[in-house]
Amino acid sequence: MILAVLVPLLIACFIPALSKLKAKIHTGIFVFFVPFIIFLYFVQFVGNDFSPQIEQYSWIPSLGINLDFYLDGLSLLFVLLISGIGSLVVLYSIYYLHKSERLGHFYVYLLMFMSAMLGVVLSDNIFVLYTFWELTSISSFLLIGYWHFKERSRYGALKSMLITVFGGLSMLGGFILLYVVTGTTSIQEMISQVDVILDSNYLPLILGFILLGAFTKSAQFPFHIWLPDAMEAPTPVSAYLHSATMVKAGIFLIARFSPIFSSYEWFFLIVSIVGIITLCWGSYMSVRQTDLKAILAFSTISQLGMIMAMLGFGTTIAVFAAVFHILNHATFKGSLFMIAGIVDHETGTRDIRKLGGLATFMPITATLAIFATFSMAGVPLPFLNGFYSKELFFDAGIQLDNSGFWSQAIPYLAVLGSIFTFVYSMYLFFGTFTGKKHLEQLPKKPHEAPFGMLVSPIILVLGVILIGLLPNMANAPFLQHAAEAINGDTEFYKVKFWHGWDSPAFRMSLVVVTLGIILFVTRKRWQAVYQVLPGKASFNKVYDAIVANMDSVSRSVTNFYMTGSLKTYMSLILGTTLVVSFFVMFVSNGFTVSTDQLADISFIEIAVVLIMIIAAIGTIYMNHNVAAVLVLGVVGFGVAILFVIYRAPDIALTQLVIETVSVALFLLCFYHLPKLRKSTDSAKTKTMNAIISIGFGALITMVAISAHSSRWFESISDYFVENSYKLGGGDNIVNVILVDMRGLDTLFEIAVLGIAALAIFGLIKNKKNKEAE
Amino acid sequence: MEIITSILAGVLFATAIYNILQKQLLRIVIGTALLSHGAHILILTMGRLKTGQPPILTEGISDYTDPLPQALILTSIVISFGVTSLLLVLAYRTTKENNTDNMEQLRGNENE
After folding, report:
1. Which residues of chain A make contact with B38, given a CB cutoff of 8 A?
2. Is the domain of A485 the same as that of A602?
3. Contacts 24+ apart (CB under 8 A), A368-371
4. pLDDT one-digit tens code per residue, A513-566
5. In terms of domains, do A245 and A272 share one?
6. Any CB–CB contact under 8 A between B60 and chain A?
7. Which domain-ending residue is among A261, A294, A322?
8. Do B11 and A617 touch (CB under 8 A)?
9. Tens digits of per-residue pLDDT, A677-698?
10. Does the structure's ipTM exceed the value 0.95?
11. Domain count, chain A
């Protein structure tokens, strides 16, 4: 399994080289084999006797972060979707993307996404899952912005990333809380600790954070706004990421954590309410769109909401229907996206107002579209898979425990959402393929797509029909395992087409179809309703306002402190240090004065210290180069004298030598440097500088006194005194520490000096060379 | 005495920082030199003053001054010498190249 996750990434490394050959061979041909082989590898697991597989690799064991891969029915369903749809999408992209495009970039991003998505659905470790999760957001960002010269592409890419990464971070917060509560990073081990999690005080927070992650990723109301803008991506990407796989990552997350949360009543309420609202809002808004892909985007939002709602119900039938619909949605929506891409490719526009009557020009595409749209609408025909899952959805809604108001409202809302689903499906098909032709408005003369482009949608539509005809074929060996992974039920749910005239779900379907047809036919008359709801209100405006405000606020904050002046930076850093240090010292009562064990004071020490203080202050007022350096030298030699007094002969010697050399060096440089001038700062700046410096001096004094007054630990110096001769063979303890016990430090110190010397040499030598030229 | 040296360290730091906050390059170099003196005095004070004989093993003496701060300071003196000399040459070159030693004029371009 680890190979399956990493192979796309590995192959991606070779894509730039392979894309050099794109004049002869389309890069997509190489890429096609990657998901295809992964698909073939995982198909072998499908079967009645499938049992979960585990593969474990150590990565960062000390943090509990390991590459643990866990393949159960749910993962298997997603893996097959990712690799299966992935193969078809790559195949389709070979004909969709012209060789003059930057194919190398495209396929590297796509393979990166494939790896990331496989990682999300196979990881058992929450932190690894999170890493892959963010990687899908990043690759989605890159793919949406693929045509980066378009303003809308960049806007859409940024929007999708901001929203999904915001959700991802919140999910990480939930994961960390889960880790704190359970002490494990493995999802399966968390599931075995359900009671601990349900008893935890953090439960509402955990649920909220994780749901936020899932809702943003799966474009649930009100975070759905990024998905329509993501449609700026090339159509293969929309078909792959934004309908079949990535947007279902949130669904996956909810399904994965269902065993933990399903008995918590808020889980049912939040997930099903958000899901149903998304279903209704998405389908309602879809009817209003004019861009083919925008219709599909809102349709995807609404279908995702439906799946989400079913996961929220959590009953056996609802979970099975959810799993079933994940598969069905991938087939019909994937093919519809490809069909929209074909229409766009062959006519040059996706504006449904300009399209119409295309069935005569593109008969095959139209035939495919009719199956896919009718399946999406849930038209009761025995060869359309969408109908089965839609009816299961109605069944699930009716069978809910009818105690609360919300549970009773669900079936009605489900029917409402489905009516609009029916309307936009019809609108999509009839608006594009039948009716009046507007050939003069089309940028290109329409004709049927090349066969290669039709292969992928044909295979997907065949899937629609096959699943429709034999709904139980994929059921027992495949879907049942996925449902079992979510709710633990091993009961085999048999799907039937015919439930009888008196079946309530069938009656709901009839209501949907009847009202749907009426609303579709009278569509023009009630369009005005959109002026009232949503009217001018839009979540996009909220998003835009938030982004614009954050942008201007951070810009003004940055401009405030990034002035380009070193002095300002120093003042800010020092000022902050001062405030924080004094605050901490005050809060923790850190300042202590103890007069015990003070050394005695002699006259000569006082004299030296006084001279040093005067000299140090003098450096500020000296406006003559040589005088300033001599004063600085006084401080340096004063330090040397103090070293002598305090019994540090080695450093006293060193200080003397270094100070002498330093003064000489300063004098040497002065010949070339401009004279010191009187400060021209304003009084205000001077005061500010004085406050910062005096404050800092006071802080250092307080730290020094406190350090002297409080000894919390035994000094480690005794070790050196004892072992200097034994281990180092030397009487001079300081020397032994430097050259023996801390020998490596000294070696690096020499290296630093060497580097400084080289740099100085370079700075001077370079100048001479320039002059020579 | 420790309190007096603590105050000395504080004064050295204060004057060092006042110099560093000036505009002229040379003053900044002087400031860094003062800063290292201050740091040395600070480290020495933390190790307690005059608590014994110089840290050179001698027959019959068991009480020595703490050798550890001295080893640290020795390293620090050498490093700060390297830093000061590099800064000096850097200041020299900067002044030659840009014809100014005023930090406010050396701040680079807008939006760089």
Report:
1. 700
2. no
3. A368/A335, A368/A339, A368/A454, A368/A457, A368/A458, A368/A461, A369/A336, A369/A339, A369/A428, A369/A429, A369/A432, A369/A433, A370/A429, A370/A433, A371/A332, A371/A461, A371/A464, A371/A465
4. 889 898 888 888 888 888 777 777 778 888 889 889 998 999 998 888 887 778
5. no
6. no
7. A261
8. yes
9. 776 778 888 888 899 999 999 9
10. no
11. 4
